[in-house]
Structures are given as C-alpha cells and as structure tokens.
Design goal:
3 strands, binds zinc ion
Length: 287
C-alpha cells in the first residue's frame, strides 16, 4: 500500500512508511532504466532489455500479481536507478517530517481531535477535515520538498564520489518527483471519488512543486525550467510508451488546475498560516 504516517507519542516524533512504498518505487525505477529508450544518454542503454513481467504487474495494479523488477543490466544505469530510488523514498520521508516540524500535528489535534496523521485515512473524512488536510498537504509538500532538495544535494555528492552520476543533482530530483507523483496519480492516492479527499490531486501537487522550484524565494530553486521539464518528460514519455495506468501529458496540467491550486494556496495563507506562525520558515535557497 502506498501510505505513510506521522505522529508524536510522548514527545517521540515518529514517521512510518508502508513497505509497499519502497518496493513500488524500486520496481518503477528498475523498469524505467531497463528500458532502452529511457535516458538513452546514460550508460549502454541500447543493450538493456525491458522488464516485461514487472511492467505488466505495474499495469495491472493488483498487488497479488506483483512481480519484482530485475535491475538494469548496465552498471551505470543500475547505480542511477538505486540513487533515484533513495531520492524518491526520502522525498516521502521529508514530506512526513514537514507535518511534524511545521506543527501540523498539534494544529490538527486542536482542530480535529486526532493525534496522528495517516496520509490515506482508514475512515471517511468530513468536509471540514478534508478542507483542512488539503491545505496542510500543500504546506508539507512545499517545506518537505525544499528540505529534501538540500538533503539530496548532500547525498548526491556522497554518491558521486563512489559512483559518478551522469545527471545533475537537480535533474535527479526532478525525475524523482515526477515518478513519485505519477505513481500516486496512477493509484488516485488521496483523492477517492466517493467521499471527501485527503489530498489535492497528485498532478496538482506536482505542478505546485515544479512551479515553486523555478523561483529562488521558495527555498527549492533548481535553476531552470528546462530541468523541471526534462524530468517530467523523461517519466511521462516512458509511462505513455509502456501504456501504464493513467498517463498524463504536460497539456493536462491545465490552467484550471493551476487556478484551483492558487485558490487553495490563498486559503492556506488566510486559514492556516496565522495558526502556524510559530513553525519554522522554509529553508533558504542555495544552488
Ligand atoms: Zn501529507
């Protein structure tokens, strides 16, 4: 299951990730870099062989027929896949950490009487709870991604000393984010049709982060729109080519979605931000 949890128990801050998250992310990146047409500039791409069985199990979305992916054959592509798995898993970790460091838990307890924050709740949400969570999610996405980028730049340097990574830290980060939100989009994570959603639609969240990564003031500047687009295109082309569930084109990240997002962010500024004033500000940008 693609789910995670943040909670504070007796002053211990706890973050939980369901095991399925890590396994699914590894499966996607191993399949991605085993495809000879994905990131052709990396290693000996033309000798890769597609991971047919594992791709079929991604396509079916039935956990009972999960098929573990074989690693890419080329060592450089295998190393890059492992680095991208780590980068993506830590992206989710930093999102959960932001729920704690931004004081969402006491705020949520005060407003809703709940002591832990399960990303995909087991019980239905009320309209009021759903509205509050959409706002807290956007905040956790932004602060989590900004801190994650700082963490990742440090890890990237460490990795690069042992195994040269042929892509920039920022492009790895952009690919990881795109893959993460494509996976969540394919599962409809957090946006069930029958009751109030726990999250904004995954592709709206992705648009939010990519948009913020283009401006220095948001603490997660990656330097150019080209990097963000290259990350998106690498994943969306591979996704569409393999007919994986719910492909999305850049054009579908539409103006309506952007306007809806801006309205949610304005609501966050007026409803939540005054109560979260004591929370740490976003980290400063560095590139
Ligand atoms: Zn969250």
């Amino acid at each position: 299951m693609f789910n995670a949890l943040a909670t504070v128990e007796h002053s211990h801050e706890l973050i939980g990730m369901f095991g399925g998250i890590i396994i699914r992310i590894q499966q996607h990146f191993y399949c991605f870099l085993s495809d000879p047409s994905a990131l052709t500039e990396i290693g000996n791409a033309k000798d890769e062989r597609p991971n047919i069985q594992s791709l079929k199990s991604i396509g079916s979305q039935d956990p009972k027929i999960y098929s573990r992916a074989r690693a890419p054959l080329d060592p450089q592509r295998k190393n890059l896949a492992d680095a991208l798995v780590l980068c993506t898993v830590m992206c989710i970790f930093f999102h959960e950490l932001a729920h704690i460091t931004r004081c969402h838990l006491p705020f949520y307890r005060e407003q809703m009487g709940k002591t832990s924050y399960l990303e995909l709740p087991m019980a239905r949400l009320t309209a009021e709870e759903s509205q509050l969570r959409l706002l807290l999610e956007l905040d956790a996405d932004h602060i989590g991604a900004a801190n994650h980028l700082i963490f990742w730049r440090g890890m990237y340097e460490h990795f690069s000393r042992r195994y040269p990574i042929p892509l920039s830290a920022e492009l790895c980060w952009a690919i990881s984010l795109a893959m993460c939100f494509f996976i969540m989009h394919s599962f409809d994570a957090g946006t069930p049709l029958l009751h109030y959603p726990s999250h904004p639609p995954p592709m709206m969240r992705y648009l939010h982060l990519m948009n913020r990564s283009l401006f220095q003031e948001h603490g997660m500047y990656i330097g150019s729109q080209e990097t963000a687009m290259k990350g998106f295109k690498a994943v969306s082309d591979w996704w569409a080519k393999n007919k994986l569930p719910k492909p999305i084109e850049y054009e579908e990240l539409s103006k309506e979605m952007f306007d809806e997002l801006q309205a949610l962010l304005r609501k966050f500024e007026s409803d939540c931000w005054p109560s979260l004033k004591g929370a740490p500000r976003p980290p400063s940008s560095r590139l």
